């Protein structure tokens, strides 16, 4: 598939998902619930097969980015909570969500360090896997039951989804090297699975939004606008932090480009479902920023 076709695939998946969610709400929501976790697992597995543990290095840049992602997300949640808990959750998930599996690809296209992004992508996902059961236990749909019960429910779903792909990738590398090599050299698979996942989760989000009625529109607008602020802010802060270590591009992409498919799934599963407006809007904002950055890069390259 050409690069131009790939450029249009994700917006097409979003539009198609929106149409499916509007006209076929029940089957769209059903298949999103069933298939989205499987596709997220498969995407991470393909991505992790590209990772060599020996090449992974924790750098000061990674610590700075992770602090914004985790601590910054909690600070923003606390600041917005007294305004409205739902808006606070919708903004929080836009910061807390881990780096996108496609971030290293975009980083390479922009001239940044792919190895830096691969390392941070793993760190980012592992941090979310370990911390989300604790954090989500204090908010969202499981907040009314005991902490232990809530913690165990979320652990049973999040940990296998985010950590098991890494374990499977390492086992394949050791015991089934041919399969591992095949997945390692088929990284485009994650892009196509991302498009299908995007279709499903956007469709499910649209289905839920329509059910809310006009009274929820002010919440939806507020969450969407705050997701824009979160997106621009994270690209900016990531670039600033990256600049201190000589890698502005990796810093910006590591912090700003999010796994929005996972974020929407988490919002619909563990938080108030209307908070999925945040990551759904974030898809538009981050793709707009990345498209503009790629346009500027191509324009500069033509001048050389």
TrEMBL record:
InterPro entries noted in UniProt: Na+/solute_symporter_sf (IPR038770)
TM segment ranges: 7-24, 30-49, 61-83, 122-141, 147-171, 191-210, 216-238, 259-285
Protein's UniProt keywords contain Coiled coil: no
Top-level taxon of the source organism: Bacteria
Keywords on record: Membrane, Transmembrane, Transmembrane helix
Name this polypeptide is given: Transporter
């Amino acid at each position: 598939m050409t690069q131009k076709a790939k450029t249009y695939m994700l917006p097409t998946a979003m539009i198609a998902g929106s149409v499916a969610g509007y006209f076929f709400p029940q089957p769209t929501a059903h298949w999103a619930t069933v298939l989205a976790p499987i596709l997220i697992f498969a995407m991470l597995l393909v991505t992790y097969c590209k990772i060599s543990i020996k090449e992974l290095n924790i750098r000061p840049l990674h610590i700075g980015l992770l602090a914004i992602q985790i601590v910054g997300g909690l600070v923003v949640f606390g600041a917005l909570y007294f305004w409205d808990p739902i808006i606070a959750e919708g903004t929080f998930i836009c910061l807390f969500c881990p780096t996108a599996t496609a971030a290293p690809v975009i980083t390479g296209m922009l001239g940044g360090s792919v190895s830096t992004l691969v390392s941070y992508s793993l760190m980012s996902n592992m941090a979310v896997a370990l911390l989300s059961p604790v954090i989500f236990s204090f908010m969202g749909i499981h907040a009314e039951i005991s902490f232990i019960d809530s913690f165990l429910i979320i652990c049973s779903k999040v940990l296998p989804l985010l950590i098991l792909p890494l374990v499977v990738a390492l086992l394949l590398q050791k015991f089934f090297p041919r399969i591992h090599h095949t997945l390692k050299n088929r990284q485009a698979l994650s892009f196509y699975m991302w498009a299908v996942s995007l279709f499903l989760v956007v469709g499910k989000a649209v289905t839920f939004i329509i059910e809310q009625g006009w009274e929820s529109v002010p919440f939806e607008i507020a969450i969407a606008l705050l997701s824009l602020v979160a997106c621009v802010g994270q690209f900016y802060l990531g670039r600033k932090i990256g600049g201190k270590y000589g890698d502005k591009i990796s810093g910006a992409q590591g912090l700003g480009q999010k796994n929005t498919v996972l974020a929407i799934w988490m919002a619909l599963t563990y938080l108030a479902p209307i908070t999925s407006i945040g990551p759904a809007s974030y898809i538009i904002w981050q793709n707009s920023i990345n498209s503009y950055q790629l346009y500027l890069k191509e324009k500069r390259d033509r001048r050389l």
